[in-house]
Structure formats: structure tokens, C-alpha cells
Design a protein that fits this description.
The chain has helices spanning 14-25, 33-45, 53-59, 90-99, 103-119, 129-133, 147-160, 167-183, 205-222, 227-242, 269-277, 294-302, 315-326, 353-361, 403-422; strands at 3-7, 28-31, 65-70, 73-78, 81-82, 122-126, 139-144, 196-199, 245-248, 259-263, 282-287, 306-308, 330-333, 365-372, 383-387. The protein is an alpha/beta fold. The chain folds into 2 domains: 3-221, P-loop containing nucleotide triphosphate hydrolases (Rossmann fold), CATH 3.40.50; 227-427, 3-Layer(aba) Sandwich (Glycerol-3-phosphate (1)-acyltransferase). The two termini are 36 Å apart. The model has no long low-confidence stretch (mean pLDDT 92). It binds 2'-deoxycytidine-5'-monophosphate (DC). The site of 2'-deoxycytidine-5'-monophosphate has 15 residues, from helix 2, helix 4 and helix 8.
Length: 429
């Protein structure tokens, strides 16, 4: 999973570069400016001054904005209608700049932008992607060019699309918009501390794309398979063979993106068997007591386990889990909270942690069922590890959060695990 943030002022060529890079890397391109433009367009169409926050903010609940991808191409629907090129006029550019300085507008668009990057590798362009939207992006680039070079490009682009503008007009608007975007109080356009600066005043579009691709290749070279996955490729098959594991539903595990994995719990061995069955790295939430056993501590730390203190509400474990999910990782939790060997999972109690985390992270949940005869491991018993289809976060019916909602959501998740258990799948012989 890779997230590339490209920030910088208008006219630096962010969108054409990002589009080309997305194509070469076969990842999704998200043009966040288009979201602000759509809100600007709505305000103009409805006679609302885009800089009048008192009118803009209440109007945010009057329309439906959807960001979708058709054949990998971003499409924005405003009240169900594709906005297309109507957001690309100079008037809408100015309106977008004005609405983007309003905090409530930025908050309104935050989750739309983040949730895409939680599920997919993306290249996202904007002004605050590296600083606010995806501060954990693997690669952050600040793409810029001189005002003259940028104005010239924008001018040529507008002329080629049939707009009647003069170079001076475009230049002045660009300077004004730069000033608005970089001096506003919230999320001003500025490079993240760890961003790579790329000035393309004297570069062609192709050279800029090549420069970005070589930054990505350098990153990939430095971050080859980690120790976990290297060990996984050597050991997982052996572990599955040793314990007689049969895997089901591997197609239900998305290739990338942050999810919670929830499984029933029979014995400590579950951790090993699920890890050996899943083709991606999983971080397990493990009770803190396990970290005080010297040898085990080493193994579970190496596995990247998240330490949980069960004596109270352990906020740090919850925060860490959400952080990992937002980074596109799989975090596993056993909703039963304890091991229940020999007991049918339908007859055991559950805790609410999975509900709480999926609410806070806004992520989907992959149910997993470990099915073994009599719910007890034994040398000669085959173990089935069944991955169910991800449960959409929307199906967990969250409104404002709270224990009641977490409990209901955990029940929905656990009922999925039980239906995998009861499926009577003919493969489970
Ligand atoms: O990249 P663009 O020209 O399409 O952006 C239009 C306006 O939206 C721009 O003036 C600033 C604003 N914007 C923003 O504030 N934050 C973003 N992430 C993207 C755009």
C-alpha cells in the first residue's frame, strides 16, 4: 500500500502529473481540488457568496456530494449529477479558493478524502494532503514552479478549452489565489516538514512524471518486504501443514487497505494460525500480561502486536489500532475477549472493542471463523480458518457512537462469525 501526497500551488501541473503517475503505478488518482470546486460551483449556482461563511456553512447540508471512480477515473456527483468540466472555469476557481478557507468546509470534506486512502493506494493532489489529510503518507511531494510558468500553463490550458481570457488576467488571478491559499489560517498551502520539494519551472510534464516515479522507486527500494513478510513466506506454509489448517475465503481479504479482523477465540494458537493463513501482515491486539513473558514478549513484539491493558479503558491501544488501520494495515481483535476452548462461540459473551474501533476508524470488518471439531485443538483434527466477506462499516449502523452502538455493532460482527461457523460448508470436512 502506498499513499502519495502531491501538494503545491495552482498551475504547477499537480493534476496532470498525478494522473500520469497513477496510470503508471496502477493506483487511484484523487483530485481533491475538484471537491472544493464543486462546493464553490454549488454556492455560485445558488446565489451564495463563496466567502460568506454564514451562508456557506448552513448550505452544506442542502446538497449531496459523492466522489466515485468509474473505470479508475474520478467522477463527482452533485445531487446525483456529474459536475464534469463545469467546475473548471476561472469563476469556479476563485469560488473554490474562497470556500476552501472556511473551516467547516474543510471538515466537511475531510472524511471523504481520508476514507479513500484507507482502502486503496492513492496519489492525491491538493494543498494540505501531506500536512492535514494524510500526514502519514509514505511519499509527500511539494510541486511548485514560478508564478510566470504556472500562469502560462494555466492560460494555455484555458485557451485550448475555448475560454476567452488574457494572460494578464490569468496571472493576476493566480497570484491572488496563491495568496488566499497560502495565507489562510486553516490548512494553508505549505510543504509538510518531510515533503520533497520539486520545482518544475524548467521541466516538461514528462520530466516531472519521471521525477516523481523515480522518487517512488527510491522509496520502494528502501522499503522492501519487511521482516514479518519475509518470515511469513518461509514459515506460513509449514505452520499450516503442521497444524492441519485448511483455508477458506482468501478472496475476501482485500489486497490492501485498513480493516479490522475479528475472529472467535479457542486458544493462543489462533494467533499463529490466522497469521499463517492470511497473505497479509496482521497486527493482533494482545493483553499486556503476554508482554511480561520474556520469550513471548520478543515474538509478539516482532509480530507488531498492539499492547492492551484490560484493567480499564485502554485508550492508547485503541488509538494505536486506529492509527494502524489508517495506515492501511489489518488489526485483529478477538471480540470474545477470552479463549473459549470446547464452547460453541454462539454461547459465549463478547466485549465491545471491535465496535468502538471500527466506529472511530470508520473501517470495514473482516469476520474470521476458526472451526475445529468440538472447538478444541487436537493433533489429528483439521482446523478450518474461514475468512468471511468484509462487513461494510455502514452495516454497523453507527450514528453518534456510544456503548449501546458499539455493543450492537459487535453483535452484528459476531453474528457473521457464527454464520460462518454454522454455514455447513461442504468443504469443511
Ligand atoms: O487544485 P485546484 O486548483 O483544483 O484547487 C481549487 C481550490 O481548492 C484551490 O484554490 C485551493 C482549494 N484546495 C484546498 O484548499 N485544499 C486542497 N486539498 C485542494 C484544493
Amino acid at each position: 500500500m502506498i499513499r502519495i501526497a502531491i501538494d503545491g500551488p495552482g498551475g504547477a501541473g499537480k493534476s496532470s502529473v498525478a494522473k500520469a503517475v497513477a496510470k503508471r503505478l496502477e493506483i487511484i488518482y484523487v483530485d481533491t481540488g475538484a471537491l472544493y470546486r464543486t462546493i464553490g460551483l454549488y454556492m455560485l449556482n445558488n446565489g451564495i457568496s463563496p466567502s460568506d461563511s454564514e451562508k456557506v456553512v448552513p448550505a452544506l447540508s442542502d446538497f449531496k456530494l459523492e466522489l466515485t471512480f468509474i473505470d479508475g477515473k474520478q467522477v463527482i456527483l452533485l445531487d446525483g449529477i456529474d459536475v464534469g468540466d463545469s467546475i473548471r472555469t476561472p469563476e469556479v476557481s476563485m469560488a473554490a479558493s474562497a470556500v476552501s478557507a472556511i473551516k467547516e468546509v474543510r471538515d466537511f470534506l475531510l472524511n471523504t478524502q481520508r476514507s479513500i486512502a484507507q482502502r486503496h493506494s492513492v496519489i492525491m493532489d491538493g494543498r494540505d494532503i501531506g500536512t492535514v489529510i494524510l500526514p502519514q503518507a509514505e511519499i509527500k511531494i511539494f510541486l511548485t514552479a514560478s508564478s510566470e510558468a504556472r500562469a502560462k500553463r494555466r492560460y494555455e490550458e484555458l485557451i485550448s478549452k475555448g475560454h476567452t481570457v488574457t494572460y494578464e488576467q490569468v496571472y493576476c488571478e493566480m497570484v491572488e489565489r496563491d495568496k488566499n491559499d497560502s495565507t489562510r489560517d486553516i490548512a494553508p498551502c505549505k510543504p509538510a516538514d518531510d515533503a520533497i520539494m520539486l520545482d518544475n519551472s524548467d521541466m516538461t510534464a514528462e520530466q516531472t512524471v519521471d521525477a516523481v516515479i523515480s522518487i517512488v522507486n527510491n522509496y520502494k527500494k528502501k522499503h522492501k518486504k519487511n521482516g514479518y513478510m519475509r518470515a511469513h513466506s518461509v514459515l506460513a506454509g509449514f505452520i499450516r501443514f503442521l497444524y492441519g489448517v485448511k483455508r477458506h475465503g482468501l478472496e475476501n481479504i482485500p489486497k490492501e487497505g485498513g480493516y479490522i479482523i475479528c475472529s472467535n477465540h479457542i486458544a493462543v494458537r489462533d494467533v499463529l494460525l490466522i497469521a499463517a493463513s492470511c497473505p497479509r501482515q496482521i497486527r493482533f491486539i494482545a493483553k499486556k500480561e503476554l508482554f511480561s513473558i520474556p520469550f513471548l514478549r520478543r515474538i509478539i513484539s516482532w509480530l507488531g502486536a498492539i499492547k492492551l491493558d484490560r484493567s480499564g479503558n485502554d485508550l492508547s491501544a485503541i488509538k494505536k489500532s486506529i492509527e494502524m488501520i489508517n495506515l492501511g494495515e489489518l488489526v485483529a481483535i478477538f471480540p470474545q475477549g477470552h479463549r473459549y476452548p470446547g464452547v460453541n462461540p454462539a454461547e459465549t459473551p463478547r466485549k465491545n472493542g471491535a465496535g468502538l474501533i471500527s466506529y472511530r476508524a470508520g473501517c470495514d470488518v473482516i469476520p474470521v471463523c476458526i472451526k475445529v471439531r468440538k472447538n478444541k485443538y487436537s493433533i489429528f483434527r483439521k482446523v478450518h480458518v474461514i475468512f468471511g466477506r468484509p462487513i461494510d462499516n455502514k452495516a454497523l449502523n453507527y450514528k453518534n457512537g456510544g456503548n449501546e452502538e458499539y455493543k450492537n455493532a459487535t453483535d452484528v460482527i459476531f453474528n457473521e462469525i457464527i454464520s460462518l461457523y454454522n454455514a455447513g460448508d461442504t468443504r469443511l470436512k
